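Database export, one record per block. Field names are fixed; values are copied verbatim from the stored entry.
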Amino acid sequence: MNKVILHPRREYATVHHHPWIFSGAIRTVSGSPGIGETVAVCDARGTCIGHGSWSPSSQIRVRMLSFVPDEVPDATFIRKRVAESVARRGAFLARGATNACRLVNAESDGLPGVVADFYNGVAVVQLATAGAEFWKDEIAAALMESVPGCTGVWNRSDVDSRVREGLSPETGLLAGAEPPELIEIYEGTIRYLVDVRKGHKTGFYLDQREARATVGSYAKGADVLNCFSYTGGFGLAAQAAGARTVTHVDASADALEIARRNAELTPNSAGAAIDFIVADVFKQLRLYRDQGRQFDLIVLDPPKFADTKASLMRATRGYKDINLLAMKLLRPGGILATFSCSGAVTPELFAKVCAEAAFDAKRDMQIVERTRQAADHPVLLSFPEGLYLKGLVLRHSFCGKCQM
């Protein structure tokens, strides 16, 4: 088998089960591994410490699949790993609170680069790495075998990160039957229509499930502004919880059309007035500022601003800008639920950026809750990078220094 030999004193992270091996940690490569093929990973003395997938185009040259020296990943191994990941979600789905969840969460489930989400009978995968692409047929077959009621596996491997792996974007059917144009899922009493073919990520933001419930708990009687609303998510939770008004703002008219349809499916016992605004969020926030508009509850759930550490400075400026603008639109006592899905932005940095935004906005803001990705998106302790989603629920406190 092809081997990767690490530099002396560079095996510490691998020995402690971190799944990434960067190019700079590799001393030599024995053999000529193909893209995505399994290689043995050895320390500087030549002792095998596990096996991983080879990615010659990426700075992350190897992604570990097994840390057991005599366990060589093959098709049976991959299928078993997928089935085990699915089984861990069995109790979650059995509760009946939803018919959609994450089935495989990449490195944190021992399958680097593999994301699989389930939407009411349809499994949708994103294969972001060379190793994930190499094993895609086994992954699809395992999902069909191990997911109860799975009718098909749809490929949404159109993520930008594939370029860094030397892979081109791919979408289409991998197994079973093609999905319908829109799939209806539910979270409690709220219904969502999901477009797995063209929607964001695999079609929906399953990772914000628990945060949506949190936002709903602050929404009764509130005037709500849902920014970067996509297909409604947070605004629908607010509507179902008894909001007085809900304004959805997003740059995509197509996403807002689905949001409109979702709102029609969502309980609205308070008779909330619902509005849908196609606009750039930054510009719309400035417009509301100039108009003197105010809200009781504002949600900021922007797309990823930082893909890498190199783009971190630009990302922090963006986060500060939108949070500053939103804080100025809050009524005293109002709630800002703000999120970052940029893995390069740590929870500590995100809190610091929000603190700077509050200072410049001349608002005293209290942290009343912190949120993270939902429980079906676990984080491996040896892989803290898996914690990508973080959120703060902030209250505009009553303070004499605040300038309204």
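Remark 1: The longest helix spans residues 312-328.
Remark 2: Residues 75-176 form a domain with the Transcription Regulator spoIIAA fold (CATH 3.30.750.80).
End of record.
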